[in-house]
Specification:
This protein has a single domain, classed as Acetylglutamate kinase-like (Carbamate kinase, 3-Layer(aba) Sandwich). It contains seven helices and 14 strands. The mean pLDDT is 94. By secondary structure, it is an alpha/beta fold.
Length: 256
């Protein structure tokens, strides 16, 4: 079975031009089939503030009203996505930028308004694995942003970690899939203030302990939850690591 790497980039890396450029150059050099999923929360938040809209987050997830949806669509699907694609072309990686609406790649359902109304936020319902396989077979690397659709004409903002996990899970039926979640730190930290306190491996019981102790919170909670969902869905391996070490196999936090 062919190997496929699904790599998610987010955190402060997207907002750091030098770090992003280094990552994309390294990503382009990875041989074989690969898919890139990206967020862009920091740039989206800054853009919202510049327009007089105060960003609102709950448990690491963005509350997306109608005006916020317009902005995050422009930022994720436009500005960030196309700049990434252009950079990858520069480094010899033929890429195509996608939302979930393109090729009906990812369909999400609008999250219920109770107990928390997140607005136009989607939960992934299905991934069109054939659409991604079509690009891969043609030697094209899909670059996927966090904007999906409901199949009824409405765009939805979906957590990028969730998108990456769902895509990796769907592709694991046809590929030996590896999911790599990259951000600006070396892995999951036992002490958020100590960059050397990387946890080498996390299993489900340890995850529960870390949550109970308050050692993982905010954006790390959905990241780890999605990592465990991927493992349960047949993804061969999941690693959370520093984007600067994407070419180093023995780094980061392995999810078991």
């Amino acid at each position: 079975m062919e190997t496929l790497k699904v790599i998610k980039i987010g955190g402060n890396v997207i907002d750091n031009p030098a770090a992003l450029e280094t990552f994309l150059k390294d990503f382009a050099s990875i041989p074989g089939a690969k898919i890139l999923v990206h967020g862009g929360g920091a740039i989206a938040s800054a853009t919202l503030k510049s327009m007089g809209i105060e960003p609102k987050m709950i448990d690491g997830r963005r509350v997306t009203d109608a005006e916020t949806l317009k902005v995050v669509t422009m930022v994720y699907a436009g500005l960030i996505n196309k700049n990434i694609v252009a950079a990858l072309q520069k480094y010899g990686c033929n890429a195509a930028g996608l939302t979930g609406a393109d090729c009906n790649a990812i369909v999400s359902r609008k999250r219920p308004a109770t107990p928390i109304d997140y607005g136009f936020v989607g939960d992934v319902e299905r991934v069109n694995a054939d659409a991604f396989a079509m690009f891969l077979a043609a030697g094209v690397t899909p670059v996927v942003c966090a904007i999906n659709h409901d199949g009824k004409g409405t765009l939805l903002n979906t957590n990028a970690d969730t998108v990456a996990s769902a895509v990796a899970a769907a592709m694991s039926k046809s590929y030996e899939t590896q999911l790599v979640m990259c951000f600006e730190k070396d892995g999951v930290l036992y002490d958020k203030d100590d960059p050397e306190s990387v946890i080498a491996a996390i299993d489900a019981p340890l995850f529960e302990t870390l949550k109970a102790d308050g050692r993982v919170a905010a954006g790390m909670l959905p990241k780890l939850s999605n990592a465990f969902d991927a493992i349960k869905s047949g993804v061969k391996s999941v690693v959370i690591k520093n984007s600067a070490k994407i070419l180093e196999e023995a780094s980061g936090t392995t999810i078991k």
